[in-house]
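seq:
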Amino acid sequence: MAKSEIQVFHRSLRSPGRCDDNRRMLSVQEQFGQIDIYVFDQILRGNIAAPMRVVDAGCGYGRNLVHLLRAGCEVFALDADPDGVDHVRRLSESLETGLPATNFKVGRIEQLPFPEGFADVVLCNSVLHFAHDDAQFRAMLSELWRVVAPGGMLFCRLGSRIGMDFEPVTGNVFVVGDGSHWFLVDEDMLLGLTDELNAVLVDPLKTTIVQDYRCMTTWVLRKQRESR
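struct:
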């Protein structure tokens, strides 16, 4: 693609639904990227919208951030992969969001570089099942929850044992379909953690079973405005 064509494409990304200079409407993929369908659901229902401050913890290459950056959310993102963080930083620049490059950081979820109650929404998509053990899982969850503001929302999508059986390795670590070792939650664990956090379920637990491979559960919590 020539430089002039890239510039046209980037201009067209700035506003959803607008045509580019050739009167071409943006496709859904151009507007939303490779967004997770369950993140998309929260956007459609108004649970994630501008001008909210959104932290994507474990952002990867920003698959869930295309629309949020364009829509005017105050986006922060973190990942252990420097290449992914650099890609998200350049994506923000290409969309001319005006967000500082320092919003996009290399780091670990167990040590989020944000103050308590920092974000209206914290996203953690397809990351928590890479915890090595219960201690690391709880450390990551504790940090995610710490950063959520009172009244804010934590969106997690993670591997689970809801609907399939897996070969155990140790503790809550199991072998999934491709031979990888994942930390897998179950319904009782998630509901117990919801109570521990004094959180409110935004939705009932929703689980997708991928044939003979894995189960992915969506766990969405609202932080109450007042502690018990």
